[in-house]
Amino acid sequence: MSDENTKLINLIADMEEDDAIAMARQLLDGGMQPAAMLEICRSAMDIVGQRFEDQEYFIPELILAGEMLEQIGDMVKPLIAAGAEDAEDREAAGTVLIGTVHGDLHDIGKNIVTFMLDVNGFEVIDLGVDVQPQDFIDAIKKSAPPIIGLSGFLTLAFDSMKETVDAITEAGLRDQVKIMIGGGQVDDAILAHTGADAFGINAMQAVSHCKGWVGAA
To answer: Cα–Cα–Cα angle for 63, 64, 65, nearest 5°?
Structure first.
């Protein structure tokens, strides 16, 4: 990772809002790819999340980090959208139901994934944050989406993801959907714990999973 990337990650993680936003703008104006900027944001939020878990940061820091990422996202989105306008798969690709699981109010990662799915031709049903398992079940019954995205930033969200997957299974709907998880420190162990089908390290990988599932269907 370049020194510039590392510097921006640290500026975001250290809550240096003005400097972080200015540097993000400079890098994007200098030709940095949107995907690289989103990866910087993901890395910074990993640090913020760990500091929150370690009780070095609290809710105000999470809010400020979210505001910074929202501002950077506003810079990145037009660049992503411009690059997607001529894509062959811009036509309706399928429907994805997404939400941040109960007990977690974080929505920055979810919003980035939602935007990326949208510009890649997916219809997205966003249930918001702190979504109870029954709300996912009701939405599945109403809209019959083939793909479910469960987002969570805090480690406590992993148990909520498992509860949601279990509830979908108990409702007899598990065979009808593919379930993807994302956010925080997701890995193969968390995937196995939750019973989901796949996890996305970043928004681009999330889109790739969805395209693969729709294509296979």
So the answer is: 90
**pTM value?**
0.74
Domain boundaries, the chain: 3-84, 90-216
Q: What is the CATH number of domain 90-216?
A: 3.40.50.280
Domain 3-84 has CATH 1.10.1240.10: yes
Q: Which two tokens stand for residue 95?
A: 């429907």
Rounded distance between C-alpha atoms, residue 24 and residue 36, angstroms: 11
**Which residue(s) pair with 147 in the sheet?**
96, 178
Closest CA to 117 of 208, 213, 216: 208
Beta bridge partners of 24: none
Secondary structure (3-state) at 178? strand
Task: Give the DSSP letter string of 105-165.
Answer: ---HHHHHHHHHHHHTTEEEEE--SSB-HHHHHHHHHHH--SEEEEE--STTHHHHHHHHH
Q: Mind listing the pLDDT tens digit for each residue in 13-56?
A: 999 999 999 999 999 999 999 889 988 987 888 788 788 878 99
